[in-house]
């Protein structure tokens, strides 16, 4: 069974940085389509912020392009999201997601709050 556990969230001032990590168990991450998705407070829809599909190049939402970087650590079976120059509008619960054998798996989410 595939399981995802996120960490690294917290509170940071505008302009600050955070790195989120998603430790994956159950299968090598090279098998997955993977992404980071966020849900802002008061919004029902989740926003896809960064993804790597079919082992290709990373893709980013326009709102985070140039500030966020998705990467993988195959030795640790981890998917990371480096976030810099954070803005108050980046405040959200961030979820790690993988698609494996036509099944979506989600982590529990980690809160990121950007506030002065």
Structural description of this entry:
By secondary structure, the protein is mainly beta. It contains no helices and eleven strands. The strands form two sheets. Strands 2, 4, 5, 6, 9, 10 and 11 form a seven-stranded mixed β-sheet that branches. It has a four-stranded antiparallel β-sheet with strand order 1-3-8-7, with no helix packed on it. The protein is globular, with a radius of gyration of 13 Å. The relative contact order is 0.33. The mean pLDDT is 95.
Q: What labels describe this entry?
A:
116 residues; mainly beta; seven-stranded mixed sheet; four-stranded antiparallel sheet; globular
How widely separated are the two ends? Answer: 41 Å
Counting DSSP H or I runs of 4 or more residues, the number of helices is 0
Report the β-strand fraction as a percent range. over 45%
| Mean pLDDT rating | 95
Give a count of the beta strands, DSSP E runs of length 2 or more.
11
| Order of helix and strand elements from N to C terminus | EEEEEEEEEEE
Largest sheet: 7 strands, mixed
- Cα shape: globular
Query: What fraction, in percent, of the residue positions are helical?
Result: under 10%
**Computed structural class:** mainly beta
Low-confidence stretches: none
Radius of gyration: 13 Å
